[in-house]
Amino acid sequence: MLDWDEYHLLLHVARFGRIPEAAHHLKVTPSTVFRRLAAIESKLNIPVFQRDGGQYTPTEEGVAIVHAAEKMEQETANVARHLFGESQTLSGSVKITTSEVLSSFFVARHVMAMGREHQNLKVQVVSDDTMLDLSRHEADVAIRPKRLCSDALFGRKLATIRWATYVADKNRHHDIDQMHAFIGHAGDPRLAANFGSTAFDPNATEGPQFFASSLILRAAMCAQGDHAATLPMILGEVWPGLRRVGGALEAPIGDLWIVCHHDMRRNRRVRAVFDAMIEGARADMALFEGPKGADQAT
């Protein structure tokens, strides 16, 4: 018979497919995961995973075990959400998941203001482009540049995010056509279009010379040299050493949403975050859509 910690470990190995990634999310070392997995399989006297070049895939028996672990996780999350959702105090903790750019240039300011108003509230802000799962209660509130489509979620649109083209201010006398190239995207190639750039291709003979894995890194690289970058205006308009070329682009464009699980929409801590971010987005509309006159070249 396995305990919850053992089910939890198997679930993470199955979910991420590799020991290092599972260890990272479990906040233990890979050697600990190796050791505990070996002990579990010895205890069960069956292999739970097939190994193939570092990739772990559940065996037929493993699939059943992982499915049981998922049900246990979901039930635990349901109870946690119900208890949290019923809480009507403005003390305790609330966890927000958002992106690096949004956390730095929008969320941070308004979270700190909210904290000064509600001093018994402990606020965790997780800045990562990997989205935490609200259904599994990995976070209480998500602030993301996309709508999360699920009947289990409740959300509000905060703003429209506009993008523009930027160059280093020291290149003020250069036309965009004279720039060497745009900075490309070094992360997941499936996300390149969302980030308004070209994905890295080691076999490409044309295209960008430089690639960045994050928007903040792209802005920093753009400010240093002769390469242009497409950036959300909330970042490009305030980054030191950048100037906008032309107005807001027709694409990419996105909507900023704040979302929680439907069970938690009436929780006072969650409502405090919603109220602070809705009010903050109204005040910061020019940050998301650019200043007045942004449709004109600068």
From TrEMBL:
UniProt keyword Glycoprotein present: no
Pfam families in UniProt: HTH_1 (PF00126), LysR_substrate (PF03466)
Keywords per UniProt: DNA-binding, Transcription, Transcription regulation
Domain of life: Bacteria
GO terms classed as biological process: DNA-templated transcription
GO molecular function, one term: sequence-specific DNA binding
InterPro entries registered for this protein in UniProt: LysR-type_TF_proteobact-type, LysR_HTH_N, LysR_subst-bd, WH-like_DNA-bd_sf, WH_DNA-bd_sf
Positions of the HTH lysR-type domain: 2-59
UniProt-listed Gene3D superfamilies: 3.40.190.290, Winged helix-like DNA-binding domain superfamily/Winged helix DNA-binding domain
Name of protein: Transcriptional regulator, LysR family, putative
Keyword Chloroplast part of the UniProt annotation: no
Family assignment from sequence similarity: Belongs to the LysR transcriptional regulatory family.
